[in-house]
Write a structure and sequence with these properties.
The protein has 101 residues and is α+β, with helices and mostly antiparallel strands. It has one domain. The protein has 3 helices and 4 strands. The chain has a 4-stranded antiparallel sheet with strand order 1-2-4-3. Strand 3 and strand 4 form a beta hairpin. The longest helix is centred in the C-terminal third of the chain and has 18 residues. The protein starts with a strand and ends in a 5-residue tail after the last helix.
């Protein structure tokens, strides 16, 4: 998750596509995890997956090569549903891509 506030911080790799200040949920699109998350059918909650595109991505410091799709958290949106979505992505990540020692 990223809290975006325009005019605050440095955008080093070009401007971010976000027009509005707010909270954004980022989901990996490339690498081993990205391939698992974006397979057909997408194993993520469709309510949120439908609001993202694997082809419209952002990168974050320090590794701009790691790419992320994103969606904004909307006013009045169920925070429990977003938490469940993030937990489901984490579950997929731990099953497919265990952290290497």
């Amino acid at each position: 998750m990223v809290i975006f506030q325009s005019g605050f911080g440095i955008q080093m790799q070009g401007r971010l596509p976000w027009r509005n200040d707010g909270v954004y949920v980022l989901v990996r699109t490339n690498g081993e995890l990205g391939d698992v998350l974006w397979q057909e059918p997408v194993p993520m909650e469709h309510r949120f997956a439908n609001r993202m595109s694997r082809h419209e991505t952002v990168g974050t410091a320090p590794n701009y090569d790691a790419r992320f799709a994103y969606f904004p958290v909307m006013a009045g949106e169920s925070l429990d549903a977003i938490a469940e979505f993030i937990a489901s992505v984490m579950t997929l990540a731990t099953h497919c891509c265990p952290v290497k020692d």
